[in-house]
Amino acid sequence: MSQAFDKLLDARGLNCPMPLVNARKEIGKIELGQVLKVVATDRGSVADFQGWAKIAKNVELVAQETESADGANLYVHYVKRTA
Amino acid sequence: MVEGLKDKVWTPEDLLERLESRDRFFVLDVRNRDEFDTFRLEGRIPVPAINIPYFEMLELGGKDEMSDSVVAYVEQSLANQLPSDLPILAVCAKGDTSQFVAQGLRHLGYAGANLQGGMKAWGKHYATRTLVESPDLAIYQVSRPARGCLSYLVAGSGKAVVIDPPRHLQPYLDLAGAKGLTIEAVIDTHAHADHISGGPTLAAKTGASYHLHPYDAIHPIDMQPATIPFEFIRDGQTFPVGQHELHAFHIPGHTLGLVAFRLDDKYLFTGDSIFIRSVARPDLGGQAAAWAPLHGRSLRRLIELPGEITVLPGHFSSLDEGDETGRFAASLNDLKQLNDGLVVLQRESEEGFIRYLLESLPKFIPEYMDIKRVNAGLLTPAEEDAATLELGKNVCALSQAYAASGGGRQ
Q: What span, in angstroms and rounded, lies between the C-alpha atoms of B353 and A83?
């Protein structure tokens, strides 16, 4: 089942650290309780979003998914703004 | 945003040179903690390092841009931990994020540099060293410093045999091309557990034959036969190298099908039996008690060879095992004095040596069973999975040398 979200951030093709840098900026722009969906191609982003969500005081990592598109993997992160 | 600072970059080659020459520098590693614990930079002398994952710097530094966050984080939390009189090498997985870290450090006046390509590039960096070179006989040692893997290209009269090539084939293709050599045979001394072999693919690519001892073509845990094409190596078999011959010694112990090769009375390619400071572990097939006695007898067979013979091992545990020119080679006579395992072998009874082997086993590494599956053709990983499987330094030696080198997989 697909996860609900309020805003989409396309981070495909971006190398570390840009998916996370851009996600942090977007989180500042959405409302409390809203969810940002981040789509990345960088596999390292999976562990990095988990690590980030643990120390950041204003976000919760709601879900992570891996999707296959055109033979390449997409790493999808759902991040909720909590503060 | 921090701008206008010229990037200082160390290539993997620069890094190796500094590690080998005992240069003093400091590492700021911004990978995740488990990556840092599994695989870190090691030199002839310990490399001081600190690990702060980049997302912690970004979040706790609190700025929008990475390099600005680095500046803020270092000022708040790291300033008293970073040396002002040494180069600081920023290290990450692929060398992108560490660029921002190096920039931030330089902005603060530190001698920040970036490891180009990160640990990924370091993990597949190769260095080729000439051991002997004449038209009649040439031996090149190709090392993979991050993993402690050694392989060889042996050539005579324009023909070459490659021993134990890892999966990145370019160093051997380049070497053969540069020296005008035809690779005729590729040999794996055994089914490797710590790294993915390039043997079958190098053979396929060059039209060479590929050789493995049949005992190592059965996965020791799965009891499944290898699906890769290979020719059987027999004990006593010879492989011509121009006017010379490589002579096979079946020396079971580390694996059941381990084979060493003697080139005349001058060189002994020991695979994973005798290393420089230690001997191989007998437990990677999950049969330590059964294989340790075989290992002991095989090692006794090897040390009966002429003492002047030069041992060329399949691994090292520390760069410091290399000589001052970065070559990993020593006479059997010297090793009988200096190699922990051989010293014990000569001192102890057969039972005493077996006890020593079984008491010196490093931690068993579960990934090694999968790597053996890959090498038997029983498993085919995607490139990223292959790199992950192989991450970290090899742990094929007994624990003495391993502990002394102070790192690797914990």
A: 63
